Amino acid sequence: MRRVLLVEDDKRITSSLTEFLATEGYAVMAASGQREAMALMKTQVFDLVLLDICLDQGDGYLVCRAIKEQYTIPVIFLTASDDENSIVNGFDTGADDYITKPFKPRELLSRMENAFRRYGSGKNILSVGNITMDVDKGIVKKEGAEIVLSALEYRILYYMLSIRRILLSREKLLEQIWDIAGDYVNDNTLTVYIKRIREKIEDDPAEPRIIKTVRGIGYRVDL
């Protein structure tokens, strides 16, 4: 199920659009302002963002720019601001599409599907920073270039991306993975695999920004 973040301060629109998208198979989480939207982006994984410009708290342009700087997902402005400057500013901040209110629900769905196709996003795409994982195809890419991972490296990264921004103890991670032969991976081996994964996905493995070490406890996937 594709997950959509709806950033909209009109409760009536939020309610009706959430209900409509749910009938089309989307899971929708809503935020009314900039701070709430960015807080959800840090704790949840979304496939697409629908974003208004005028918000109770903050500015839609700033939200779009912040999302585009940190995540690889499509953003569609959904707003009543239909003047040329607003549209140009929307695209300048990195938006993938711009739809003015009132809009036709089926047109919105079509625009959303077009955005998914441009990003190659299916129902099982995980992303963090410049890393994307296509679970259906078993492919991991960094900035669009495929990364070759071993089966166990892939399994570890998949699990960590699935629960990003949640503190993951080494013990919990060891419980969730095992090698191809079916033997449990020991603590030292896990350290080696984390190092190898970092070497492949981090810009600077010595100063990792994606897989952070929480000293004495385990790991957390950031960004």
CATH architecture of the largest domain: 3-Layer(aba) Sandwich
Q: How would you sum up the global shape?
A: elongated
Q: Write the element-wise H/E pattern from the N-terminal end onward.
A: EHEHEHEHEHEEEEHEHHEE
Distance, first to last CA: 22 Å
Count of discrete structural domains = 2
**Adjacency order of strands in the biggest sheet:** 2-1-3-4-5
CATH superfamily of the largest domain: Response regulator
Structural features:
Arc Repressor Mutant, subunit A, 8 helices, single chain, 2 domains, Rossmann fold, 4-stranded antiparallel β-sheet, alpha/beta, 223 residues, 12 strands, 5-stranded parallel β-sheet
Describe the structure.
Helix content is 41%, strand content 22%. It has 223 residues and is α/β, with parallel strands linked by helices. It folds into two domains: 3-119, Response regulator (Rossmann fold, 3-Layer(aba) Sandwich), CATH 3.40.50.2300; 150-221, Arc Repressor Mutant, subunit A, CATH 1.10.10.10. The chain has a five-stranded parallel β-sheet, sandwiched between helices. It is elongated and about 60 Å long.
